Amino acid sequence: RSRFLTVAMAAVCATGTRSSFAAAAPRGGRPRRSVAVRATGPGESTMRPELKSAIDTFITENKVVLFMKGNKQFPQCGFSNTCVEILRRCDVPFETVDILADESLRAGMKEYSMWPTFPQLYIDGEFFGGCDITLAAFEDGSLQEQLEAALNG
Q1: What count of Cα atoms within 13 Å lies in the side-chain half-sphere of residue 100?
Q2: Which backbone phi and psi does 6 adopt, to 5 degrees?
Q3: Could you read off the pLDDT of 18-46 as tens digits, one per residue?
Q4: How much is the pTM?
Q5: Residue 57: CB partners within 8 Å, gap ≥ 6?
Q6: What is the pLDDT of residues 103-153, one digit of tens each?
Q7: Contact, 82 vs 135, CB < 8 A?
Q8: Which of 2, 7, 6, 135 shows the shortest CA–CA distance to 67?
Q9: Phi, psi at residue 3, to the nearest 5°?
Q10: How far apart are CA 143 and CA 83, in angstroms?
Q11: 74, 102 contact by CB (below 8 A)
Q12: Phi, psi (deg, nearest 5) at residue 96
């Protein structure tokens, strides 16, 4: 279980709500029940406050976080792998969160960032971008500058 899901589960349990992260269906299946996302009307947020709080905490406590398909040891898509390789070339410490581990996390991250695709890179608590933006910033040197500022600032 990833450190992020442990933090998210603790946040949910602290509110007295039974956690269903462990009850989520296996990849490719439909979740049986979700505590992180609830159905609402048009224009309303579907993200439960417990998940938002857990995401806020995780990206604040870690300077560089990549929400991706898979993890840095075993990326599950080419775009995620590209971002992992870029961060490795920048030689910075970073955390990864496997969004395939829980459908409510995957849906919640899309709403949290207002970005529809993965991977999603966060630097110093702020959404940086997806694979294309990360690759372009790496190629022009601005990614390295931002990472250095975040890690040394």
Answers
A1: 13
A2: -65, -45
A3: 333 332 333 343 333 333 333 344 456 77
A4: 0.74
A5: 7, 11
A6: 999 999 999 999 999 999 999 999 999 999 999 999 999 999 999 999 997
A7: yes
A8: 2
A9: -60, -35
A10: 11
A11: no
A12: -125, 150
